[in-house]
Write a structure and sequence with these properties.
Rossmann fold; 2 domains; six-stranded parallel beta sheet
Length: 400
């Protein structure tokens, strides 16, 4: 279980507090924050430091500027938006490191905050360059990592800096993410079901392997199911198949057959004659997709079967939609399972949704607040479910 020092273990009064947050948010064409969910989720840790009299130095990345400062990747809109949320000015530093940044921090008063400019304006960030990490570290007395969404990256601001600042602790959001995911995997209430979808089997193989001995059942959906079908010689038409993963899918099927977990595949498929919202559609049995057609959602029989399987669940982890949720005709399967999760959550089950596409779908359905936890980290939650060590977590200070 999670055994790292947290924000509640440190006294920030009068200290320079470096906090890594995940403010990688979408911006509108006129450079306004389009979705502030990640900013809002960081507010408890931010307010804790400010209320306790710390001098807060926030840092984040935005997009992929690849070491080149560009206006479209500046954190200026985020600083402005955060200022509005806090009803207190959050100044944007002119750079990530350097004498001017140091001077602005020295002139700060306790209880105030500054946001460093995009850490990825430096290639040294993604290279986890020790000198760059050290330069960042010299800005703070305490390091807090509250960016679960980047915890799977060994970057300078997420992993490197933690080796230069003592203590390096977890923020409230980081702690919440690891508590929910950790308990789900280590001490789940049973029955424990996993729902795995999305386009590619390559992104889920390690997850399935890691979950098979832990769960009571797995529901598979999304386009990745067609790679399994292709191995079995079933008709998949023009559906998306990872041809270089077909043999791997076969090996995984063998592991599934030898496990104690109940693994369900779609029984019927909603297929379309083109990849667009106005395409002609029909429903066919699994393995009966004709040439020129492609599977874009699970069918009604599968929806009933999957919903029934989840109805008695006490723990559910879901990563990956059941269909092409960006198109209204092909989101029924995902919506139905989301509704089922809401039902089981209401009666006390623990329901955890991870992955950017799945979280986005729940937001579309206005159901984000009706499940137990929606993870802010797509890649990080996936790697956690794979059983991998997250560098940004491992680098934090252990409880003594």
């Amino acid at each position: 279980m999670f055994d790292k020092m947290t924000i509640d273990d440190v006294d920030v009064q009068g200290k320079n507090v470096l906090m890594r947050v995940d403010f990688n948010v979408p911006l509108t064409a006129d450079f306004q924050v389009a979705d502030d969910a990640r900013i809002v989720k960081a507010l408890p840790s931010i307010r804790k430091v400010l209320d306790d009299g710390g001098k807060l130095i926030l840092m984040s990345h935005l997009g992929r500027p690849k070491g080149i400062p560009k206006r479209e990747f500046s954190l200026a809109p985020v600083a402005e938006h955060l200022s509005g949320l806090l009803e207190k000015e959050v100044r944007l530093a002119p750079d990530t490191i350097g004498p001017e940044v140091v001077m602005q921090i020295e002139n700060m008063k306790p209880g105030n905050a500054i946001l460093l400019e995009n850490v990825r304006f430096y290639n040294e960030e993604t290279d986890n360059d020790p000198e760059f990490a050290g330069a960042i570290a010299r800005l703070g007395d305490i390091y807090i990592n509250d960016a679960f969404g980047t915890a799977h990256r060994a970057h300078a601001s997420t992993e490197g800096v933690a080796h230069h600042v003592y203590p390096a602790v977890a923020g409230y959001l980081m702690q919440k993410e690891l508590d929910y995911l950790g308990k789900a995997l280590e001490k789940p209430k049973r029955p424990f079901w996993a729902v795995l979808g999305g386009a590619k089997i390559s992104g889920k193989i390690d997850v399935i392997e890691n979950l098979l001995p832990k769960v009571d059942g797995i529901l598979l959906g999304g386009a990745m199911a067609f790679t399994f079908d292709a191995f079995e010689g079933l008709k998949v038409g023009n559906s998306f198949v990872e041809k270089d993963r077909i043999e791997m899918a076969g090996a995984l099927l063998e592991h599934i057959e030898n496990s104690n977990a109940k693994v369900l595949m779609p029984m019927d498929i909603v297929i379309a004659d083109a990849f667009n919202e106005n395409a002609g559609t029909k429903i066919v049995k699994r393995g009966e997709i004709p040439d020129g057609w492609q599977g874009l959602d699970i069918g009604p029989e599968t929806i009933i079967s999957y919903s029934e399987a989840l109805r008695d669940a006490e723990t559910v982890v879901w990563n990956g939609p059941m269909g092409v949720c960006e198109m209204e005709p092909f989101r029924k399967g995902t919506k139905a399972l989301a509704d089922t999760l809401v039902e089981v959550t209401a009666r006390g089950a623990v329901t955890i949704v991870g992955g950017g596409d799945t979280a986005a779908a729940l937001k579309t359905f206005d159901l984000v607040d009706k499940v137990t936890h929606v993870s802010t980290g797509g890649g990080a939650s996936l790697e956690f479910l794979e059983g991998k060590t997250l560098p940004g977590v491992a680098a934090l200070t252990d409880h003594s």
